[in-house]
């Protein structure tokens, strides 16, 4: 009997993971570093990591809006300009994109592989 419960839980977790994966794919377009560099200067660039991570190093020109604050800071984002997001490894930026998509933002991109893969110019501190 307990193996049935375990199987149901495993199936539920798998279903949730698949739903989340496909939901993120609909919400955001991942870009290589080269593609990201081509477009981010004409867009809104947001680092969705926490402030201490941002201050440790961020892409030149990025503004810090942590994922934990994105719902309360939507007024800082424009719907008429593309939004470029990144985090440490693409997980949080994917979640941020899902939130933004639900709020009516449509032109959303993320840095594939996140900041840990970035080899371009960075700035430390605020």
UniProtKB/TrEMBL annotation:
Entry superkingdom: Bacteria
Pfam family of the protein (one): Rhodanese
Domain Rhodanese: residue ranges: 39-123
Record InterPro entries: GlpE_sulfurtransferase, Rhodanese-like_dom, Rhodanese-like_dom_sf
PANTHER family in alphabetical order: FAD-DEPENDENT OXIDOREDUCTASE, RHODANESE-RELATED SULFURTRANSFERASES
Protein name: Rhodanese-related sulfurtransferase
Originating species: Peribacillus huizhouensis
Classification lineage: Bacteria, Bacillati, Bacillota, Bacilli, Bacillales
């Amino acid at each position: 009997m307990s193996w049935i419960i375990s199987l149901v839980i495993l199936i539920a977790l798998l279903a949730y993971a698949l739903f989340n994966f496909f939901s993120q794919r609909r919400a955001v377009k991942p870009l290589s570093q080269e593609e990201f560099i081509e477009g981010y200067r004409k867009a809104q660039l947001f680092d969705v990591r926490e402030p201490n991570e941002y201050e440790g190093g961020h892409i030149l020109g990025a503004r810090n809006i942590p994922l934990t604050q994105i719902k309360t800071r939507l007024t800082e984002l424009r719907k008429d300009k593309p939004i470029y997001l990144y985090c440490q490894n693409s997980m949080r930026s994917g979640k941020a994109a899902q939130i933004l998509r639900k709020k009516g933002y449509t032109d959303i991109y993320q840095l594939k592989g996140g900041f840990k893969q970035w080899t371009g110019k960075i700035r430390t501190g605020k």
